[in-house]
Amino acid sequence: MTPRQSTAATAGSPPEGRDFQPADVLNARIMGDERSMYALFDYLREHDPVARVEHPDYRPFWSLSRYDDIKRIGSENDRFLSAPRTILIPTAFEEALLERFGTRNGLETLIHMDRPKHLKMRKVTREWFLPRSIESLRAEVQALSREFVDKMREMGPECDFVRDIALLFPLRIILSILGLPREAESTMLKLTQEMFGSQDPSLQRADSQTAGLDVLNDFGAYFSEVIEDRKKNPRDDLATVLANAEVDGEPMNVLDQASYFIITASAGHDTTSAAIGGGMKALLEHPDQLDLWRKQPELDIQAAKEIIRWVSPVRHMVRTATEDLELRGRQIRAGDNIALWYPAANRDPEVFEHPNRLDLRRDPKTQLAFGYGSHMCLGQHLAALEVSCFFRELLPRLKEMQFTAEPEWIHAIFVGGLKSMPVRYALD
Ligand code: HEM
Predict the structure, then answer these.
(1) Residue pLDDT, tens place only, 113-151
(2) Which pLDDT band, with edges at 50, 70 and 90, does 207 fall under?
(3) Exposed end of the chain (fewer CB within 10 Å): N or C?
(4) Which of 77, 238, 380, 391 to probe ligand 1 with, by most ligand atoms within 8 A of CB?
(5) What is the rounded CA–CA span in Å between residue 167 and residue 161?
(6) Domain-embedded: residue 2
(7) Which atom of ligand 1 is nearest to the CA of 374?
(8) Containing domain of residue 146, as a range?
(9) Is residue 1 part of a domain?
(10) H or E stretch at 74
(11) CA of 329 to the centre of ligand 1 (A)
């Protein structure tokens, strides 16, 4: 799903002693560090909430940073389309994707589709991700939480919480739902990091456009084998559902199947890993909230959703206007692209009281980390269950934890989060 992005926009440090510019949303170093990212969004929300962004490496677009605007555009899916421009990709790589796949988005996954195809494709896996289906996984997710917290205790008294725990736990769960073996973990982790971390020199495969296409090809090749296997040997797993799915009475085509695998496997773990890594950091920085959750485990999904609001791992999605509109005095034309910045919405002081305070008792329904409208995250109930089960297992056993080095952020403008967080701790 996610095309490789050049490092051009990562050059330069966060601006000091000057105002932010709208094009700073494309600076992966500013966007990759929560302090500079939220400072940028505070600035834009106040001074330029409907900002025109021009940058030599990207096609122009509008950038929204206020909650109400983001929710409105996100919910009107027939007026603001997900195709043809779904996320922000440098023009040069868009051209490479166009040549290879026939669209500037590259693969066409659920997030890239509009009605009527989107609804039909989403229906294929809808049942698997409904709240009652996800609730039936609670015992398995709890058992895996215990396994990972036990692993942490064995590794103690020090580990890298992100690399050793947060990156691996959600991966194990989504692979189990898909029905893939544990041996697939390292391949999936590497491919997803190369895809989402393509602006980060320490995660990208190589600094060339063809490396980005190679990552997509490798994903496709791996899943094509799984599809062939499940056609011959059906099992009770999501891979079997995708391999044998029909749309409009016809077998789903191979490219759609591979794309479906890629979106499920990739969106299903990196985002949730970012929420768990960033959530741990937030809880250490808000010891009153850590203590509250330890004493009131029943906060459960509500607390998990506040953690997800806090981290907002998906930084943006793009929509394309089908008609002219005026927004806060700016004239948006049919065909213009509009970026919706979810972390900006989730810290909007007009909607959230004390938005920069972690408050596990906050109303979980308001936040937009899972998007809004017909593309709202398919895996949202799974993500909340994973975050909740993990911390409900960890917190009662955690006697102490401190950072032993400054946490490091991934340089990214699409899915962001921590790449490393060394800690020292004591666990029961
Ligand atoms: C904290 C974790 C997560 C966050 C913050 C998150 C965020 C999002 C957002 C913002 C969208 C909306 C895209 C749009 O509006 O165009 C989305 C879509 C999606 N998410 Fe998640 N997600 C998370 C976890 C998961 C998990 C665990 C899965 C498991 C399969 C998943 C699968 C998907 C899929 C398949 C879509 C596409 C839905 C569609 O376009 O109809 N996500 N997610």
Answers:
(1) 999 999 999 999 999 999 999 999 999 999 999 999 999
(2) low
(3) C
(4) 380
(5) 9
(6) no
(7) 41
(8) 8-427
(9) no
(10) helix 67-75
(11) 32
Helical segments of 253-314, H only: 254-267, 270-285, 287-295, 300-311
Q: What does the alpha-carbon distance between residue 174 and residue 266 come to, in Å, rounded to a whole number? A: 9
Count CB atoms within 10 A of the CB of residue 369.
Answer: 22
User: What are the Cα distances from residue 370, in Å, to 19, 50, 305, 364, 427?
Assistant: 30, 21, 10, 11, 32
What's phi and psi for 210, nearest 5 deg? -70, -30
pLDDT digits (tens, 9 = 90+) for 84-107: 999 999 999 999 989 988 899 888
First to last CA, the chain: 41
- How far out from the chain centre does Cα 30 lie? 18
Confidence of residue 6 (pLDDT cuts 50, 70, 90): very low
Any idea which residue has 């490393």 for tokens? 420
**0.85 surpassed by pTM:** yes
Distance 379 CA to ligand 1 centre (A): 6
Locate 367 and state its tokens.
Answer: 């936040």
pLDDT tens digits for 147-178?
999 999 999 999 999 999 999 999 999 999 99
Residue 226 inside a domain? The answer is: yes
CATH at residue 135: 1.10.630.10
The β-bridge relationship of strands 58-64 and 50-55 is: antiparallel
205 in a structural domain: yes
Find out whether 207 and 7 touch, Cβ atoms under 8 Å: yes
As for how many domains the chain has, the answer is 1
Residue ranges around ligand 1 (CB below 6 Å): 74, 82, 110-111, 122, 174, 263-264, 267-268, 271-272, 275, 308, 313-314, 317, 342, 369-371, 375, 377-379, 382-383
Query: For 398-428, how does the pLDDT look when each residue is reduced to its tens digit (9 = 90+)?
Result: 999 999 999 999 999 999 999 999 999 999 9
